[in-house]
Amino acid sequence: MRERQDAYARWKSPGTDSREEYLPLVYEQAQRILFRLPPGLLERDEVVSFGVIGMLEAMERYDPNRGVPIEAYLRTQIRRRILDGLRSQDRLPRRLREREKQVRETYARLEQQEGRSVSDDEVAQELGLAPHEFQEWLVDLSFTTLWSLELLGEDGVEPPDEEPTPEAALETGELHEQLKAAIGRLPRREQEVLAAHYDMGYSLQEIAAAFELSDRYVAQLHARAVLRLRGALSRYRAQMKREGA
Asked: Do residues 34 and 47 touch, judged by C-beta distance below 8 A?
């Protein structure tokens, strides 16, 4: 609440005209995120308010000398602030957070051992679940992964607020390559769902209709793909830490 009050005060300060010029970017990014979520999960005004805060913060930090167009910079920062705001509310039950961690780590461990994408049955067996129970887990976890890749920029990583150091730039490039490689190892249908959702902007419901699949199955495909990618990147970061120790 205090954060929104501060944003309102900044909005009413001198310079409002230029801020109103970029307000459509807030609505654009808010609608983009809402479009991908189940109807009724979030209020539009709530999402927009996070976006306005992000726009105001970004306009105060924007440095034209970096050569980044202001519209592109604002879009990235507005989207980041909306997603950070939603995550900060921590609406996910602890049970779902624990399950997400279990499944992500199990995918990472098994796929490292096997050197390939593992099946649902293999993951279910490792978790001590019946196959139908694991499918229910994936449905539940689909809501935790809906905007998991949203913070990835067009090149696979989000642009930093400040000019990166050579070390940070190297790490970002390596993570980008690891992400591309991990996506390339996904089963074909999971790759198709990610491309349609993140690159082309279709909702999971639209993807289900286009592929003539059930909404439930597409949600499982999306959750499975994101959890595989999370596991692969977590494994890579852990390896880098060990090598740098």
From this structure: yes
